[in-house]
């Protein structure tokens, strides 16, 4: 069965361009705000549709924030991986976790499960934010960072 190819639109290209530039995860609202700041006229509903399509195609990684909101990032690796995410600036590093992979398989097998899958996201404070003395308790937005405007952390 052939998977239908989505047509590329100006709006989807704009969403993709912002994702390409981002160093960390962005919510749909954050991405929409960046588009508006660049002068792109893309509606929030269109941003959500584009992100859902990109996630469905495996082109973006998705994680859930503390409050359950989805955050998106351009997928840098086609292989299974995990993320190390800074709580302050959202800088993200893709990491492999062979010990986690083995553990997940052992736990599944011990309970009679097969086709075991898992999602692991690791959160902390990156060296740059730690050196600047900005941790999750300092949730004020500063120019150029990736923290939500409302101060919520990933």
UniProtKB/TrEMBL annotation:
What organism does the record attribute this protein to? Kineococcus glutinatus
Transmembrane segment boundaries: none
Family matches, as SUPFAM superfamilies: Winged helix' DNA-binding domain
Protein family (similarity comment): Belongs to the Fur family.
Biased composition of type Basic and acidic residues is found at 145-154
Instruction: Give UniProt keywords alphabetically.
Output: Cytoplasm, DNA-binding, Metal-binding, Repressor, Transcription, Transcription regulation, Zinc
**Cellular localization per UniProt:** Cytoplasm
Protein name in UniProt: Transcriptional repressor
Major site of localization recorded for this protein:
cytoplasm
UniProt-annotated stretches for the region Disordered? 133-154
């Amino acid at each position: 069965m052939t998977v239908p190819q989505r047509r590329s639109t100006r709006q989807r290209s704009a969403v993709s361009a912002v994702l390409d530039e981002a160093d960390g995860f962005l919510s749909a609202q954050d991405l929409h705000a960046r588009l508006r700041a660049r002068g792109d006229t893309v509606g929030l509903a269109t941003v959500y549709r584009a992100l859902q399509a990109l996630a469905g195609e495996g082109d973006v990684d998705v994680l859930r924030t503390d409050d359950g909101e989805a955050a998106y990032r351009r997928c840098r690796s086609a292989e299974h991986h995990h993320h190390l995410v800074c709580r302050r600036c959202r800088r993200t590093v893709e990491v492999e976790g062979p010990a986690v992979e083995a553990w997940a398989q052992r736990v599944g097998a011990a309970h009679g499960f097969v086709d075991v899958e898992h999602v692991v996201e690791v959160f902390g404070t990156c060296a740059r934010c730690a050196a600047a003395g900005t941790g999750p308790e300092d949730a004020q937005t500063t120019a150029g960072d990736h923290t939500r405007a409302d101060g919520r952390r990933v």
